[in-house]
Amino acid sequence: MAEPAAYIFKPHERPTLPGSPANPDHPAARRRGYFAIGCLIGLTGGLGNALVTVNLNFAQGTLGLYSDEVTWLTAAYFMTNITANLLLVKYRQQFGLQPFIRYILVVYAVTTLLHLFLHGFWTSVAVRAVSGIAASGLTTLTILYLMQAMTPPKRLAGVMIGICIPQLATPLARALSPRLLDWGDWHMVYWFELGMALSTLAAVMTLPLPPSEKSKAFEPLDFLTFSLLAPGMWLLIAVLSEGRIQWWTDREWLAWALIGGIVLIAAGLIVEHRRANPLINTRWLATHEIVRLMLVASSVRILLSEQAFGSVGLLNVVGMINDQMVTLNLIIVAASIAGIVVGVLTFDPADVSRPINVAVVLIAIACFMDAFGTNLTRPSNFYLSQAIIGFASLLFLGQAMVIGMARMLLAGGTQFVSFVVLFSISQSVGGLAGNAFLGTLQVIREKFHSNELVQHILLTDPIVAARIRASGGAVGGVIGDPVLRGAEGTALLAQQVTREANILAFNDIFFTVGLLAVAVAIWGLLIRMSIRRRGEVSPIILLQRKLAEMAKGGK
């Protein structure tokens, strides 16, 4: 029996880029399948890191680590996650999409399984590093599947949803992890992650993506560039992760790591700048439009650290843990989904920057709402403000991704690696820089407020003396010696002063981020005014015109 002839794709069905799937016309049922699988892949990739990040204290106790050691778990993940795309994009182009999918998912499942048996520090770091590589591929798969779920006119909506889905993982992990830990301690978290990985593997094998076109992509100098840029980024991430914990000026290795990172990254960019066919096109990245986009994207990502560090940190200070924040995080998840929906439904190709400006204004409003915390603040006080930030974060992210994709496609698609790497750096490193900045500010302001509060505490003050006696009386049932009771009362008062100083420091953080958000909003407004004055056309409109001309030429 003769084999069926291979399907020949129509001009509009051909892959947009080498290594990406073709775009055939799908029936509605298959589109729904692609959409469901795309959402599953996105959540699987995001939860892999989120479940560890939101339970670092638990991991620290389980593995017997110090606070600076446990931070290496997330640092190792980001080191490989950010730099993996330097080679993975070209691997997909040269060897095809299906091997890429199979290897990525199998590696992810195996590394998740290893978590159940490896409990040492270095083995855990190695497993997190491999997980970062796998998650980098899953992010790409999410976008590719969701693009297949959309009709051609709505394919950009697939890009917007695909980049946003993994961002739901952090609040979802905070909502899920308390019950998982109750059911089976730390191992249950990894069993859940393994189940997600195997479900994703089964789903993509059941409904694979359309075939892709292959082309020779790798060049020898690509590996030289990787050997310079990757270690440089690793050193930079190490500094941002450990700086505020080991403190910036207390450890000499931080300075040397920062210097080494800058030198290696600069050397890699010099090599790329002189190449005829660069892995990262420095000339394109240095254009006014791309620099402006990445500066705005990085700035907003730093502002969004208010949610990951500020609100959670303040609640931890007043004694709240993930168990008490389940409802808050479910509200954030719902608001974030609303941000995706609103961003897709209100997408205006002629004015793609407006939602970004709206998102920044919403962040400013939420930060000022949070800037009045007290020791009576509870998760319910953050319901509205954190819902606003969750909504704004994904309203911004989808629009920024679409603007960058449009700029990349207008350049002919040859800048795909450059764009993917730069956007990943702007978001991941931006988030790390935001946490490092806010963490440093919190420590500095806590010391300031602690000093100010202590100045007003005098043992000769009757109110202070009564407070110490009351605190000592609370332990009177177990401490009979009045001198020891007095010392314990003084220690408890000192703890209360430290708590209040931390609360005031977090209020300063909220207010500072609010002011920065106002500054970014004003900057965004000035950019919009400048674009209108120059009569600059939206990149989405330019892309639509280019595609229309290509379609007309094909006919």
List the helices and strands and how they pair.
Layout: H1 28-53, H2 56-63, H3 67-83, H4 85-95, H5 97-115, H6 121-148, H7 155-164, H8 169-206, H9 220-246, H10 252-273, H11 282-285, H12 288-303, H13 305-317, H14 326-345, H15 354-370, H16 383-410, H17 416-455, H18 462-473, H19 482-534, H20 539-554
Helix pairs in contact: 1-6, 1-8, 2-3, 3-6, 3-9, 4-17, 5-6, 5-8, 6-7, 7-14, 7-16, 8-14, 9-10, 9-17, 12-16, 12-17, 12-19, 13-17, 13-19, 14-16, 15-16, 15-19, 16-20, 17-19, 18-19
Low-confidence stretches: 1-6
Described by the principal axes of the CA atoms, the overall outline is: globular
Helix content class: over 70%
Helix count from the secondary structure assignment: 20
Percentage of β-strand residues: under 5%
Could you give a short account of the major beta sheet? none
N/C terminus separation: 36 Å
Integer-rounded radius of gyration: 26 Å
What is the N-to-C succession of helices and strands? HHHHHHHHHHHHHHHHHHHH
The computed structural class is: mainly alpha
Average pLDDT score = 80
Commentary on this structure:
The protein is mainly α and 555 residues long. It is built from 20 helices and no strands. The protein is globular and about 90 Å long. Residues 1-6 have low confidence and may be disordered.
